[in-house]
Specification:
The protein is mainly alpha-helical. The chain contains 15 helices and no strands.
């Protein structure tokens, strides 16, 4: 999140010097963990309609960066950003109504916000509308339309959509190309942090002896799944690790170093879940 802040700040600085100065100061203070000082600068910017400042303040009050967690304040800033047209804010607002987080559950309002974001090409919202259409959740049930939306979201790189399209390809293998396409979609999803994709890749590759590196690849994906909170794959990760030679362990560690995402210590720990259906 911090790297994005600084990139955006550099762009903004070239256009509106006075405002940009406060914006850059706010981002640098936030990055340094001086949240209270950052909030002082961000608040007037957000009140003046700065979408990014509004979304940062939403995160500040949601996670308690320098202030107590305050869902009412968080939703205030999110609502302003969503109504000004931010697709990411609209998507977040939809999830609040879908899950009843800080607001009463209201599927109709969730669909409203998801659709607004989807019309702007927001991949995650397109995916969610597709799933809701498949399931007939607040939207008329339509398998073909739901699947069309999911495939569109996958084309845009949404990890959840890539996961579903990848699993569908593996479940309907008619040729080697289907298998490779399924692995390709799942690999892209895993790179974007979709832990279910990492789980499936670990399982599929564990005994896929046609690939000489299958054991290392399987161990790698199990490791990534467990690191993302898949508690049901801990034993599998340990089992595959024990089967590796010293050279393979070295290769595994290199792959982990190259691919494992950078973790912001301010981000919450991943929620422990079962990633493989029982």
């Amino acid at each position: 999140m911090c790297k994005w802040f600084l990139v955006f700040a550099c762009f903004t600085l070239s256009s509106v010097p006075a405002v940009a100065d406060d914006w850059l100061k706010a981002l640098l203070l936030f990055d340094a963990g001086r949240y209270e000082e950052s909030i002082v600068l961000l608040t007037p910017l957000a009140e003046d309609g700065n979408l990014e400042a509004q979304e940062i303040l939403y995160a500040v009050h949601t996670h308690g960066y320098g202030v107590p967690v305050d869902h009412e304040a968080a939703l205030h800033w999110l609502d302003l950003s969503a109504k000004q047209g931010s697709a990411s804010a609209q998507d977040a607002m939809a999830h609040h109504f879908l899950r009843g987080q800080g607001v009463p559950v209201d599927v109709d309002k969730a669909v409203h916000w998801f659709r607004l974001a989807a019309r702007q090409g927001h991949a995650a919202s397109i995916y969610t509308v597709g799933v809701m259409t498949l399931e007939g959740m607040g939207i008329g049930k339509n398998y073909q339309e739901g699947w069309r939306l999911i495939q569109w979201a996958a084309d845009l790189g949404d990890p959840g959509a890539l996961f579903l399209v990848g699993v569908d390809a593996l479940n309907n293998i008619e040729s080697t190309e289907d298998f490779e396409r399924g692995l390709g979609h799942l690999t892209r999803a895993a790179k974007e942090g979709e832990r279910r994709a990492s789980a499936v890749l670990g399982i599929v590759l564990e005994d896929f002896t046609e690939d000489p590196d299958h054991r290392v690849k399987s161990a790698f994906h199990y490791h990534m799944a467990v690191a993302a909170g898949c508690i049901d794959l801990i034993a599998a990760a340990e089992r595959t690790l024990e089967r590796l030679s010293d050279d393979e362990v070295e290769q595994l560690n290199y792959n982990i170093t190259m691919w494992e995402p950078e973790v912001d210590p301010r981000d919450p720990e991943p929620e422990p879940v079962h990633c493989v259906p029982s």
